Amino acid sequence: MKTLIESIKNNPIKTTLILLSIVSISLVIFCLYFIPINLNIFIKIFVVLISLFILYGLFILHKKHPKTSCIIESIVVVVLIVSSIGVFKVHSFMNALIATPEFETIRIVASADSRITPQSDLSQLSLAYATDDPYSHDQGVEVLEYNEKDVAGMVSYADINKAYQALLIGEVDLLVLTTTSVNDLVELYDDYENNIRLILYKDYELVSVKPREVDISKKPFTLYIQGADLSAGQNINSTGRGDVNILLTINPVTNKVNLQVIPRDLFVYIPSKDASSKLSYSGGWGGIESSITSIEKALDVEINYYAKLNFTGLTQLVDALGGVEVYSHYTYDAGGYSFVKGMNTVNGEKALMFSRARKMLPLNDRSRGLQQMELIKGIFTKFAEVPTFNNALSIIDALENNFTTNLPQDDFYKAFQLVVQLLPQLQTMENHTIEGEYVWHYDEVRPTYYQYYFYPYDGEVELVKQRIEDTLKID
Q: Which contiguous run of DSSP H or E holds residue 217?
């Protein structure tokens, strides 16, 4: 042993080779540890065999050509380091994607130009709440207690608009924002978030959605895609209005796909409120589980899994792909961008406006649904191009904090294979909307609110159900 140590000290090349061998073996173990088990035991065995073969070859080379071995092993270590970074990034991404319990965030906010901070003494300040939300007062009190704060008094207003205006003009110091009030404010003011600042909050955990699991490589299934405006900034696990509601039905046996957009204003039963209102509100009030239940009950369909994306994720995803080509059914201007009927090149911000604009379109939300489906096809088309390693990592970075799903981790690799298998169909699938009309009436959840709701024409729901069932059939 002493002779070996002295030999190593006197031979820097041998020392370098030993260190490189240790690093190489460590990196191989690291990669094997973080490669998901669902990527198949055969992949791991293959990696082990290749690694042993390479290390054996380097061992033989050590004796005959130590300098050459040193150069080659250095290259191997660099490759393993890059691979380790990629494997660890994918591992972190997959763990981040796995659905965790959603939560409803109740906030106490101040006006944006206020000097009030979370550390301020609130005992001399007033807190406004809306009486048309029966939970607003009590939840405001709970947020204060949770954060160990007191206020001088709570001031009631008939609705959130009056309370919000009172905050802006300085009539009150603070305002309770529940998911109900957020739903109402966003209908009135697109930029209301720019006029307020978070002071205190409390999260209320909701029930997690259990998937209706099938072998997605062999059995057909339906995926619910929700684009959400979140109740707590950009935290993907917070509840949010379902502004984008799409059902993607896939049959891996027949290679059939069906893309069905559902209007956000569809009048549906909302289980968390035991009453009916707009579909978009269902996710805000009861989370993704509430949205799924509302859709299943309204359309008489079964949803297996969900994928939830916030709008920051959409922007970053399109940018990570280097922009996409998307077909527009209309020529119009929105948010400082111009779109022409036909193909348009969009970056992330332009894609976001393309997917959200509706008021200037002829069919309002139904027209927006058509545009959203075209954007999805544009993303699949760009994805069909073979991505570079850097692009793949950029896409992972874009989605990591902006996307969640209840698809089991063991099925992620199957899902990737399925997307590759069905890319031609995913790029050319037909757009399906629901034909109907808008009707004004009072809300069931908040009887004093008079709003418009979408009602399908007779037979439309049956057509939606039939298209999905046809796709699910195995010939």
A: none
The share of the chain scoring above pLDDT 90, in percent, equals 44
Backbone dihedral region for residue 400 (phi beyond 0: left; psi -120 to 50: alpha; all else: beta): alpha
Contact predicate 361/333, CB 8 Å: no
Q: Tell me the Cα Rg of the chain.
A: 27
Return the amino acid letter for 193: E
The model's pLDDT over 212-259, given as tens digits with 9 standing for 90+, comes to 999 999 999 999 999 887 644 557 788 888 888 999 999 999 999 999
* Angle, vertex CA 287, rays to CA 286 and CA 290, nearest 5: 60
Half-sphere exposure of 386 (CA within 13 A, CB side): 0
What's the pTM value of the predicted model, to 2 decimals? Answer: 0.78
Alpha-carbon span 114 to 147, nearest angstrom: 19
CATH topology of domain 103-205: D-Maltodextrin-Binding Protein; domain 2 (3.40.190)
393 DSSP β-pair partners: none
Taking only the tens place, the pLDDT of each residue in 56-71 is 665 666 666 666 666 7
C-alpha of 390 from chain center? 21
Domain ranges of the chain: 2-97, 103-205, 221-472
Token pair for residue 164?
């919000």
* 221-472 has CATH 2.40.160.10 classification: no
Answer yes or no: are the C-beta atoms of 422 and 257 closer than 8 Å.
yes
